[in-house]
Amino acid sequence: MSTDFAGDGIDLRHHGDAEVGGGLADFAVNVRTGTPPEWLAARIRDSLADLAAYPDPGPARRAVARRHGRAAAEVLLTAGAAEAFVLLARVLRPERAVVVHPQFTEPEAALRAAGHEVGRAVLGGDFTLDPAAVPADADLVVIGNPTNPTSVLHPASAVAALARPGRTVVVDEAFMDCVPGEPESLAGRLPNGVVVVRSLTKTWGLAGLRAGYVLAEPRLIAALAEAQPLWAVSTPALVAIEECSAPAAVAEAGAWAAAMSAERDRLAAELTARGLYVVPGARASFLCLRVPDALGIRALLRQRGYAVRRGDTFPGLGTDWLRVAVRDRAANDDLLKVLGDLGI
């Protein structure tokens, strides 16, 4: 679906999955390759024996609460982060909503679809957050951390500084488990007025299962639950959420994040050495590049069997930007070779 909600020609509903297919090597979608791991896939398969019963979210909700040191009343399980953004857009009644861009476009699309006017605070330079860039009268602020597509990790103190009486701050932490130790996460702190949205899609390879959750103060969680359809999260998704919140799974994700971070930094250094601008300080599982004639380069890569994510559908970027997912060393080297063949 192509939807220009803002009337500025930017397709807010264009996502990386639209870039792939046809046997292309996937550097467009930020989902960890080789997932879900077999132990998780086996638990999901076993859960199919329970499909005759209605889903019980209790065990998974309590597991998420333990994982983040929250009360169960501060947790709402959702069919992925996308459902969370829709529910927030339907329940909240902002007078001035502001989305900090560049970032994942679905929150703005959800707000506009719910009838809200949406302003944009567009970051420039190295895309780091200056809380002063957000209008003082904004009563709803949405920001990603680490941010898709820039891969910038904002300090928790800077994000928390956005909070103030009468304002809701929604922090999209879908890629926070790419950061070893998650030092800048607000999930375990949850300052007043802050809502954290998390997803299991990226690290665990569950895009098709739809598994995520919201952390917020109990009154907002109750309102979101009232707006959510009954049994919105399936039994297999609930099993996945519970399993991925266990200490062993959190440790496994941390080990992957450390290995991925080292490979990401190597890939960034290789691209920088070729004269490309890579947004500095990348902390998620992708890199954001400024490349002259990026759309042309994207087309040439597709001809050679490689899919990368165009950047011009992110407000604040343009036709000279690409997002590249970090894969394993061999796959990344293959991409580097093709770029070299193109003179990059």
**Percent strand:** 15-25%
Tally the helices: what do you get?
A: 11
**Strand order across the largest sheet:** 2-8-7-6-5-3-4
CATH class of the largest domain: Alpha Beta
Uncertain segments: 1-5
SSE ordering: EHHEHEHEEHEEHEHHHEEHEEH
Sketch the major β-sheet. 7 strands, mixed
Classify the fold: give the CATH topology of the largest domain.
Answer: Aspartate Aminotransferase, domain 2
Tell me, rounded to a whole number, the average pLDDT. Answer: 96
Helix/sheet category: alpha/beta
**What spatial form do the alpha-carbon principal axes imply?**
globular
What does this protein look like?
The protein is an alpha/beta fold and 344 residues long. It has two domains: 112 residues, Aspartate Aminotransferase, domain 1 (Alpha-Beta Complex), CATH 3.90.1150; 209 residues, Type I PLP-dependent aspartate aminotransferase-like (Major domain) (Aspartate Aminotransferase, domain 2, 3-Layer(aba) Sandwich), CATH 3.40.640. Helix 1 runs antiparallel to helix 8, helix 2 packs parallel to helix 8 and helix 3 packs parallel to helix 4. The longest helix has 27 residues. It is globular, with a radius of gyration of 20 Å. The two termini are 33 Å apart. The N terminus is likely disordered.
